[in-house]
Design brief:
The chain is α/β, with parallel strands linked by helices. The chain contains eight helices and 13 strands. A five-stranded parallel β-sheet has the order 2-1-3-6-7, sandwiched between helices. A four-stranded antiparallel β-sheet has the order 8-9-10-11, covered by helices on one side.
C-alpha cells in the first residue's frame, strides 16, 4: 500500500515516514501543498496523510480541490488543531478520518491501513496458493502449516503476487505497489527480494520468473 505524507515539521515528518515504512507501507513525502498536488497528479496512492497548517496554506484547500476533481482517495488529517469546529471543517471538506497530535503511532498505522483497504476492492482476509497461506489481518504467512518469518517488504511483495495468482506481475508493478518514489525501477532490488522470498518459502518453488516480463506465483501441482 502506497501513501503520501504531507507534513512540514522537520522532526515529525521523518518519524512518521520511518514508522510507516517499517509497518510495510511504501511512503512518499511532500513538504507543502504545491508538492503534494503535483505528486497526487502523477502517482497513484492508497491514502493521503496530511497536516493542515502548511507553509503555503491549509491542507483543506488541497482536499477540497481533490474532491471537486472527483478524487475518492482516502484522506487522514493529522493535525494539532483539535477543536470540534476544526474536526467538522475537516470532514466537511472531504476528510475520511481525523487524528490529533500528539498521537500513538500504532493507532496511526491501524487507521491508515483501514483507510487504504477501504479504497480497494473487497477481498478475502486470507490468500492461498497451493499450501501457502497469507493471513492479511494478522500479517502471517504459513507454508504447509509452518509459520514463516518475513520482513514487511517481503510480505508486501508476496501479497501483490498472491492477489494476482496465476498472472504475470511486472517488476514495475511490484515497485509501484511496494516501494516509494526513491526506488530505482531499473535496479535489481526486486530480483534480490524475490530470491529472498524463494529461499524462505522453500521447495517446491511457487514463484516463477517469466523471462522479459516479470514474475508469476501459482500452485506447482494444481489438482493434487
Amino acid at each position: 500500500m502506497r501513501v503520501l505524507v504531507l507534513e512540514d515539521d522537520p522532526e515529525l515528518g521523518p518519524v512518521i515516514i520511518r514508522g510507516l515504512r517499517e509497518a510495510g507501507f511504501a511512503v512518499d513525502f511532500a513538504g507543502d501543498l504545491a508538492d503534494a498536488d503535483f505528486k497526487l497528479a502523477v502517482n497513484t496512492y492508497d491514502c493521503l496523510i496530511a497536516d493542515r497548517a502548511l507553509p503555503d496554506g491549509d491542507a483543506l484547500t488541497l482536499l477540497a480541490a481533490q474532491r471537486r476533481r472527483g478524487s475518492t482517495l482516502p484522506v487522514l488529517l493529522l493535525t494539532a488543531l483539535d477543536a470540534v469546529t476544526d474536526r467538522v471543517a475537516g470532514f466537511e471538506h472531504g476528510a475520511d478520518d481525523y487524528l490529533v497530535k500528539p498521537f500513538a503511532f500504532a493507532e496511526l498505522s491501524a487507521r491508515v491501513r483501514t483507510l487504504c483497504r477501504r479504497g480497494q476492492p473487497a477481498r478475502l482476509p486470507e490468500l492461498r496458493v497451493g499450501d501457502l497461506e497469507l493471513d492479511l489481518p494478522r500479517r502471517r504467512v504459513r507454508r504447509a502449516g509452518v509459520l514463516l518469518t518475513l520482513t514487511a517488504k517481503e510480505f508486501s511483495v508476496l501479497e501483490v503476487l498472491m492477489l494476482r495468482a496465476g498472472e504475470v506481475v511486472t517488476r514495475t508493478d511490484i515497485i509501484e505497489r511496494c516501494w516509494d518514489e526513491h526506488a530505482e525501477p531499473l535496479s535489481n532490488v526486486v530480483d534480490v527480494l524475490i530470491g529472498q522470498l524463494r529461499r524462505k518459502l522453500g521447495p517446491p518453488e511457487l514463484i516463477r520468473t517469466v523471462r522479459g516480463a516479470g514474475y508469476r506465483i501459482d500452485d506447482p501441482a494444481p489438482g493434487l
